[in-house]
Design goal:
Elements lengths: L1 H15 L6 H6 L6 E6 L25 E2 L12 E7 L3 E9 L19 E7 L7 E6 L5 E6 L9 E2 L8 E7 L11 E9 L17 E10 L2 E4 L2 E4 L1 E2 L2 E2 L3 E4 L15 E6 L13 H21 L12 H4 L7 E7 L6 E7 L5 E6 L4 E3 L2
Parallel strand pairs: 1-3, 1-17
Antiparallel strand pairs: 2-16, 3-4, 4-10, 5-6, 5-11, 6-7, 7-8, 9-10, 11-16, 11-17, 12-13, 14-15, 18-19, 19-20, 20-21
């Protein structure tokens, strides 16, 4: 039990140290998420850490990983490739991580794998609610899988005893693991993630053609040092150097747990070279979160939330243009310490999004 508490404390400490605190950080959260069309297959797949099946040749390869803070920050030192497929049972993910020194020393399932170099998958099949899932793996094929009912910044907890049931995965290494005497080429990992296993509330999220999921990928990369031919994270002045975070769809902040900032997968029968459009829900979702971000900044400066949206910083630039299509209704409590907003489509008159100051989000159909 004490070990679990220490794990959760480390997770929350690492993540809460990067909160959105300024206009500059708000602006960093405005980049457009990336999209990817997941091609449907019918032939069986062998999960061996390789991409030798003919089906993998039909999948578009993601090659443009960036720093988690966005394109203006330094480019990743090593190349990362990712591609995806799906069928009626599984989502298939293949990742290839180029690296001259492949090492790892975390062996136990559900240990903090990102204290090694690792590859991480973030999936949110349900766009309408808050829960999401994370799977991490290192070159030793040690898995850390967890579920979150909501992001850490809203008090969410890492449910580490949750596992992806019937998960299939494998790691392949082109080189030698934990051998500093040679130069390695890459390590790759392949997953078959059952749709049936990615649900905690209500129906299982079996994707249908043209459905969207929120998704992101992260590669955590540490500088290393050697002692008696043993790899470890590099230190300067007796302090471990910060890791690099390379991702598919940049967040804008050093915090993967902004699921509203992830990219979108679209499940299709046949993928094309062109990336799919963002889902219809994207604009209203972004509007709701922009109101939320700006309200947080207003409260930081004024110790209470604003009763008028027009008083929020950057209202004219980031909220006003959307009011031609959407009406924003806000219910602010008497002491101005909490609020709920409902965004209504002006044409259909239907509520599209509900969101409050604690991050309770509901995307209405």
């Amino acid at each position: 039990m004490n070990k679990l508490i220490s794990i959760l404390a480390l997770l929350c400490c690492c993540i809460n140290s990067y909160a959105q605190n300024s206009i500059q950080e708000f602006l960093a959260l405005q980049s457009i998420p990336k999209t990817y069309a997941v091609h449907k297959i019918t032939e069986p797949m062998q999960i061996d850490g390789k991409d030798l099946e003919n089906s993998w040749s039909k999948a578009k390869t993601i090659i443009n990983f960036e720093d988690i803070q966005g394109g203006e920050f330094k480019k990743p030192a090593y190349k990362t490739e990712v591609k995806m497929l799906w069928d009626s049972t599984n989502l298939y993910i293949y990742a290839k991580l180029y690296e001259p020194h492949i090492w790892a020393d975390i062996y136990k399932h559900d240990e903090i794998v990102y204290l090694n170099n690792d590859f991480e998958i973030f999936l949110k099949p349900n766009l309408h609610q808050a829960e999401y899932y994370e799977i991490e793996v290192n070159p030793l094929h040690t898995i850390f899988d967890l579920m979150l009912t909501k992001p850490y910044r809203f008090g969410g907890q890492a449910i580490t005893h949750w596992d992806v049931k019937n998960l299939k995965s494998a790691v392949h290494i082109k080189g030698t693991l934990n051998n500093p005497k040679d130069t390695d080429s890459f390590w790759s990992v392949e997953f078959a993630i059952p749709h049936q296993s990615l649900y905690a509330f209500g129906k299982a999220p079996f994707p249908k053609n043209d459905d969207y999921w929120l998704c992101n990928f992260s590669r955590v990369q540490w500088q290393h040092e050697l002692s008696n031919n043993h790899y470890s994270r590099k230190k300067e002045n007796n302090k471990i150097l910060a890791e690099d975070n390379w991702v598919w769809s940049p967040i804008g902040l050093i915090n993967m747990h902004y699921p509203e900032r992830w990219g979108y997968l679209q499940f299709v029968q046949q993928a094309t070279e062109q990336d799919p459009a963002l889902p219809d829900s994207y604009n209203v979702t972004k509007l709701a979160w922009n109101v939320h971000y700006l309200q947080q900044l207003f409260k930081k400066e004024n110790r209470h939330y604003s009763e008028q949206l027009t008083k929020l910083s950057l209202y004219k630039e980031y909220i006003l243009p959307s009011t031609k299509d959407f009406q924003i209704n806000m219910d602010l409590n008497k002491d101005k310490q909490s609020y709920t907003i409902k965004i209504i489509d002006k044409f259909s008159k239907k509520i599209r999004v509900s969101l409050d100051n604690r991050g309770h989000f509901d995307l209405h159909p």
